[in-house]
Task: structure prediction
Amino acid sequence: MRRVYADYNATTPLDPQVLEVMLPYLREHFGNASSVHVFGREARAAIDDTRVRLAKLLGAQEGEIVFTGGGTEADNMAVFGVVRARRKQGRHIITSSIEHHAVMHACQYLEKTGECEVTYLPVSRECLVDPVDLRKAIRDDTVLVSIMSANNETGTIQSVKHLAAICHERGVTFHTDAVQSFGKQLVNVNDWGVDLLSIAAHKFYGPKGVGALYVRRGTKLDPLLFGGSHENDRRAGTENVAAIVGLAKAAELATAQMGEDQPRLFELTEKLGDSITRRIHGAHRNGHARQRIGNTINFSFEGCEEEGLLLGLDLEGVAVSSGSACAVGSLEPSHVLKAMGLLHELARAAVRFSFGKSNTAEDVDYILKALEKVVERLRAFSTYS
Result:
């Protein structure tokens, strides 16, 4: 049976070129980067070089890059770090109702413990935040706004530059979760005007368990972890040198190949979307049709449930998801789709297709045939007609 992986937003395979540059730091160059001897200095040199290279890709300065254990830690560091560093200035934060749980749950925790009041901005049916809503929501005691650059479920791209500018008019720190953006759209912290920005290597063919947080010079940020002066006193813990080296290599490859890869993936998702619309009645496209990262498309299917769709497609050899891999096991429909105003039945009948390097037009044809079969089978056992 043919196997098709169409869940690249969940994770990507490690690029062989990335593995190649990592191996020396898993073997001979194994030193602790905080050690003063030659083994440690070799590790420190690798990290310093990586920081410079990643900063260049982001349009940042090397001292503004903090390496983390992944995108979730980077998001948590941004939210908790700013709120606690600026507690004397205010206790109000703003986020959107479609954020990844790495941001959403952090905000909910701060709300639950009474550390902050949180405003959750609504979104349109196309998954867009209205800048007018943000402007109205900012208060004199607002210390942080965190709005993702591209949604992980629908792929919809927010107007980050405009949103950041609104925040800066009022002196409010702005963070964006760019975990799904980096490598799929041009990310430049100065062009966007953001104060903090999160990325994760495994979303662009790098290793799992490593990410980075851009922190604009002068941005107040308390650390999450304590126990050492690593990362300029911002993130205690012995650095994962091999993973950090892999992050930089993956970031360089993704940036260099983006101009070729993304238009091709956009064509593939459009081909799939057009075919679904024509051949499967009761299919509803979720998210903005054009203002999206090129590899992602999301559909709901009347008369179906997501569990049946995902398991049915898996049995046909097609790997997809209903949304964030971090929400697996939840019986609740996607908070993103609910925020967009979808009926409960449609929010519980959604599939996200996210393509990557290995996908081809033949994969699209295979997915469509499998999808038609699964949808027909599920509807035969429901009251749908």
Observations:
- The chain has two domains: 4-12+258-380, 16-253.
- Residues 16-253 form a domain with the Aspartate Aminotransferase; domain 2 fold (CATH 3.40.640.10).
